[in-house]
Design goal:
By secondary structure, the chain is of the alpha+beta class. It has helices at 30-36, 70-77, and strands at residues 5-11, 17-23, 55-60, 86-88, 102-105. The chain has a single domain (5-105), classed as Beta-grasp domain (Ubiquitin-like (UB roll), Roll). The longest helix has 8 residues, at 70-77. FE2/S2 (inorganic) cluster is lined by residues 31, 43-45, 47, 49-54, 75, 88, 90.
Length: 111
């Protein structure tokens, strides 16, 4: 692994899976990275933890993430399909320790 470049697995809504290489020295959230990689995420609120359309399920590597804030948890609480592996991608800034993480995109396509 190059310094500051990690790989994460991304499962799309249709079940297709890809590996994304993500530089960790850019100041972008996982939501912004997924959108830049052409995944369909509405991100209606622009990354303010207010719309939940960037909902992802963390399949592997949940323990390597910083804990969710109260605001993120409150927003996740509004989702019928959220569980204890759910996070808002706009609140996640990945670091080298997140290498090998795997997520599934779950956010609604209509807010
Ligand atoms: S983009 Fe709206 S909650 Fe993440």
């Amino acid at each position: 692994m190059e310094d500051n470049l990690i790989k994460i697995g991304v499962v799309d809504r249709d079940g297709s899976e890809n590996i994304l290489e993500i530089p960790t020295d850019i100041n972008l959230s996982l939501m912004e990275i997924l959108r830049a990689s052409e995944y369909e995420i509405l991100a209606t609120c622009g990354g303010m933890a207010l719309c939940a359309t960037c909902h992802v399920e963390v399949i592997e590597g949940l323990e390597s993430l910083a804990p969710a804030s109260d605001q993120e948890l409150d927003m996740l609480d509004t989702l019928p399909d959220a569980d204890d592996q759910s996070r808002l991608a706009c609140q996640l800034y990945l670091q080298n320790c997140n290498n090998g993480m795997k997520i599934k995109i779950k956010g609604a396509l209509q807010s």
